[in-house]
Amino acid sequence: MGDGELAWDGSRLRVEGTEFLVAVFRGDLTTDERFVIWKTRPLLEASLRLIDRLGAKRIVELGIAQGGSAALFALHARPDQLVAVDLATERIGPLDRLIETRGLGDRVHAVYGVDQSDRHALLAALAPMGPEPLDLVLDDASHRYDETLTSFDLLFPRLRPGGVYAIEDWDWAHHDAAADLAAADPEAAAGWWPGGTALTRLAFELTLATADPSVVRSVQIDRHLVRVTRGPAVLDPHTFRLHDHVSRSGAALLADPT
Ligand SMILES: C[S@@+](CC[C@H](N)C(=O)[O-])C[C@H]1O[C@@H](n2cnc3c(N)ncnc32)[C@H](O)[C@@H]1O
User: Ligand 1: distance of its center to the CA of 250 in Å?
Assistant: First the structure.
């Protein structure tokens, strides 16, 4: 096996002899010759920097889609344990074959038919990872507020102190480009943007929770990611709720004024 190095050529990427295409348009499907990653290149690069900075070896990814990011993280990060889950029930054959041919079956697990808001199913999917804490969670799944919060409540306390919970595409409700796309092609946009409560709200709530840095050490936000770093407090993974760490006065600031 090589060294997991990335060789970029525009929107194409080669790692360990495996080809990837970074594509935001959903017509592109993974084949045995080439994995498709449903991200922009800057978003993918932000996620890869995070993996590298943390030296992440125990990773959970929410949202498999065409299997591209899971395959890339498996080859680049060389995780001790990587669990990737998706609501979809259809397996991505090329991902299964990559895991098998590279002998990654003990370390990389793609689990389908798991709703990120189903605590029981999500916990069952994590079982092969064992009890040690996680380094990194990357949530690229529903981008819906309730579902995203449920996963956060379940997985954040399972991070090690200093571990990071990253939420991708968190800005769909307020970003002008999203609004412009929705105006230009409402039908397509209805499929792209999840709707419901803005994920922006969760970013604000996480920011308020930094009032107790022993729980949320920091929140870093940019165009691509919300990065939540776990503090050192002992957290009960069965009962942890973000909302218990948002003060009443803080929550009042987010109350709908209408
Ligand atoms: C943006 S795609 C993931 C892209 C993938 N991480 C990549 O970079 O190639 C989002 C995925 O989340 C899945 N998804 C949507 N709602 C979900 C939910 N409630 N629970 C789990 N997965 C969900 C969709 O089926 C879809 O495959």
Answer: 31
